[in-house]
Structure formats: structure tokens, C-alpha cells
Amino acid sequence: MPKTAPETAAAGGDPGPGLILGFARVVARDLRLALRQRGDALLAVLFFVLTAMLFPFGIGQEPNLLQRIAPGVVWVTALLAVLLSLERLFLRDYEDGSLELMALSPVPLPVIVLAKVTAHWLTTGLPLLAAAPIIALMYGLPAAGYGILLAAMALGTPTLSLIGAVGAALTLGARRGGVLIPLLVLPLYIPVLIFGVSAVDAQMAGLSARPQLLLMGAGLLAAVALAPWAAAGALRQAVE
Amino acid sequence: MSTQAAAPRKTRSLHRFANPGRFLRLADATLPWLWMACALALAVGLVGAFTAPVDYQQGASVRIMYVHVPAAWLAMFTYTTIAVASAVALVWRHPLADLAARAASPVGASFTLLCLVTGSLWGKPMWGTWWVWDARLTSVLVLFFLYLGHMAIANAFDDAGRGRRAAAILALVGFVNVPIIKFSVDWWNTLHQTASVSRIGAPAIHSSMLWPLLTMALGFTLFFAAILLVRMKNELLGQRLRNLRAASLQRRGEPGAAATGQPAHAES
């Protein structure tokens, strides 16, 4: 947004430290809020473990089968857990009006979005990353798969948070916001899912998982570069 | 986005058609010609499709191609149109661009569904299955859901203006899928064949099959243009009707009361 640059300069000299400070303050604020309401972040992990637990009941407990579907189950359930947590990304700030103050602040809105997404990933993506090996263990994933699974999830879950931020920002104030987010976001999640699962599958098949991981890294970089601007545009029209 | 408020002054040429009255007159003048050209192209294309030689491997079922391929092209073309119209609407706040984007998305969804259904019907005799999780099939399915999301979000707000802008942003974000569909068959070597018409060098399809295909594609494109104009016209007339009704209610309710700042579409 071109308008914010002169404002930043006017608000207090050097824009560089201001940006970083603003980013850090928003991350710290959101983390503090999440710490005070620990239930929210735990809920996503709980949902992740619970839905993963359903599959052996649904399709049977044959070890070979479970081992083969392990990466897919971990990815799909993690994706749904992230989806579940998206609604609270901006909703509370939107309802109590702090989003309007953030939009008015000298820190550019895309930077604030990036900060909020970072805090969202730290409170949802990271706990999912920690819980994933447990699920994989229960599904009997061979030892060779764990490193790649964690690497792929470390690259993929931030992308999920970034894309999800666009969907969450677009549906602020919509009549059926909670139902709309999956419709908007899930189609865009598919590439992350495809490469995330095929990285682990390639490793298990004795191939290199490098191409998939590189593509996921590229996806993450593209999302970092584009999603905050799209989400900021959506937020701006939500608060105007 | 307040910095862009001054932009319309500079782009007079684009905004000549922002006047709904002028647009309606233009649409009324062009629509009969569009419908005639569309009917002609579809008739010639259909005759061509049924008289074209059968494929040496596929037999007569190759004729599904004359509906499937134009529908697929139009599905992607429509999304591109929506993305361009959304960009124009967001940058220049062009009112008709917004209208065009929203009017186009159910049409695009129908083309995508037609493409998926005909592809499925064609897949059963040729591949032996209604559906495979092939890269191109999956990405076209994703396109279908993007259309549905676009339609859903445009109608999800009480404030119609917010729905329009949210839909425009979503259309631009979803545009990343169009190149993925186009190149999916080149990037992933799966069941769906690669492009045989739009490739460098001569098309890999015989001219006796190519001309009915291109005529059908022309007919589909003309149909899209005509139906888009009709839908935009309907939406404009609906707006005008709502404004008139609101004005008459106001007049009846409190005579002499000041107007509440309804947009001035009704007068044009």
C-alpha cells in the first residue's frame, strides 16, 4: 500500500526499526493473549489427535494399511486443525475494534498481518508439528519418514496459516463466515497437501524428497510475499 | 486504497462505458448480432463435429471432444476474465467491471461443470473409469470450487459493496490456479493428454477435426459474451427497479423528506 510509507516516516524517523518493533509488538501481544486463553491453541491439537484417532476405527487396524496412509492422515488432519483455528485469527480483534486501531497505526497493515500470522503459526502450527510424530508413531510410520515429515510440515504449516489469513480476512463480518472459510481456503490448500504427502512417500520409496521440499519452500516464499498484501487489502475493506 | 480516488479522471476512455445507460444502449444494439453469430457458429460447428472423420482408435466417442475442449477453454477464459475485471474494479473502481465479474462467475462454473461431466463421460469408454485423480482433472475440480467460493462470498455480506470487493480479492488470489491447470499436463505426466492444439509448431490434430473444434470454440465464446451481456443487463435493470421502488416507498412514507443518498443509477 503506497500510502503507508510516508506515514511511517512521519510517525518517527527511521522506518526500519519501527517496522521490526511494530512486528515484534503485535507478535508479543498475540502470544500473550494466546497464553492467557490456553484452551484455544490446545483445542486445535486436541482436534488433530482426535480426528487422526478416528481413521483406524473407520478403515480397520491392519498395520500395513495404516503405515501406508500415515503421512496422508497426518497431513489431512493437520490441515483441518489449522482450518478450524482460522476463524479466531482476526475475529476477536475485528469485534472489539482493535483491528481498526491497527489499520490506523503507522505500521503498514501487511506487516501487522504477517505478525498475526506468525503468532498464529506459533500457537497452532508449532503444537501440531510437536504432536505429528506421536500420530505417526501410532500409525507405525517407519523411522526413515519422521525427519522428512517434520521438515515438510515445518515448511507447509506456515503456508497454511498465510493462505488461511486471506480467507479469514475476506470473511470478516460475513453472514456465514465460519462455513465460508473452508470453501475459500481448502481449494488453495491442495498443493501444500499434495507435496507434503508426496515428500514423505518419496522418502519411504527410497527416492529423494528434495524436489518436493524445494517446491514447498518456494510455495512458502510466494505465500510470504503475496498473502499479507491480499489479507491486508481484505482487512482494509472490512474495517472501512 | 483512498489514494486511488483521484484515478478515474485520467482514464476517461475506460470510464466512458461506466455509464449504465450508455452500456444498456450498447448492449441492446450488439446482442441480436451476438446471438445470431453464436447460433451460426454453433450450427456450423455441430454439423462439422458430426461429419468429421472418426478417430482410428476412439471411434465415434471422439465427438465428445467438440463439447469438452471448448468448455474447458471457456472455463479458464472465464476465470481469466473475472480476474481481469476484478483487478480493474479494485484499481479503478469501475462499476461495470464489478458487475461483469459477478455476472461471469455462474457462467464460468457452468462451463467448468460441463467440462467435468463431458470429460467423465469420455473417460469411461476411453480410460475405463469415470474419474481419476489426475493433475488436470483435480485442478479443474479446484477451479470449480473457486467459482463456487467466488459466488458464495459475493452474496455473503449484508453490505453488497463489501461482498463485491471481497469477491474481487478472492478472484485475484484464486487466479494462481489457472496457470497450474494449463501446465499441469506438462508438469505431471499423468493420464490426461497434453495440449494438442495450442503448441509450438503445427497442431497435433488433423485439419478435418480442427476446424469444427475451432468453430465450436468460437460459438462457445460468442455464447459467453452474449450471456454475460444479458446477465449484466438484468443486474442493472434490477438495480434500477430497486432504486425506483425505494424512491416510491420513501415518497409514500414521508412526503417531502430528503433523499437518503441512493446511488444515482436510476436517473441515467
From TrEMBL, chain A:
<keyword id="KW-0997">Cell inner membrane</keyword>
<comment type="similarity">
    <text>Belongs to the CcmB/CycW/HelB family.</text>
</comment>
<keyword id="KW-1133">Transmembrane helix</keyword>
<feature type="transmembrane region" description="Helical">
    <location>
        <begin position="148"/>
        <end position="173"/>
    </location>
</feature>
<feature type="transmembrane region" description="Helical">
    <location>
        <begin position="41"/>
        <end position="59"/>
    </location>
</feature>
<keyword id="KW-1003">Cell membrane</keyword>
<feature type="transmembrane region" description="Helical">
    <location>
        <begin position="121"/>
        <end position="141"/>
    </location>
</feature>
<dbReference type="Pfam" id="PF03379">
    <property type="entry name" value="CcmB"/>
</dbReference>
<keyword id="KW-0813">Transport</keyword>
<dbReference type="InterPro" id="IPR003544">
    <property type="entry name" value="Cyt_c_biogenesis_CcmB"/>
</dbReference>
<keyword id="KW-0201">Cytochrome c-type biogenesis</keyword>
<feature type="transmembrane region" description="Helical">
    <location>
        <begin position="98"/>
        <end position="115"/>
    </location>
</feature>
<keyword id="KW-0812">Transmembrane</keyword>
<comment type="function">
    <text>Required for the export of heme to the periplasm for the biogenesis of c-type cytochromes.</text>
</comment>
<protein>
    <recommendedName>
        <fullName>Heme exporter protein B</fullName>
    </recommendedName>
</protein>
<feature type="transmembrane region" description="Helical">
    <location>
        <begin position="213"/>
        <end position="235"/>
    </location>
</feature>
<dbReference type="InterPro" id="IPR026031">
    <property type="entry name" value="Cyt_c_CcmB_bac"/>
</dbReference>
<feature type="transmembrane region" description="Helical">
    <location>
        <begin position="179"/>
        <end position="201"/>
    </location>
</feature>
<feature type="transmembrane region" description="Helical">
    <location>
        <begin position="65"/>
        <end position="86"/>
    </location>
</feature>
<keyword id="KW-0472">Membrane</keyword>
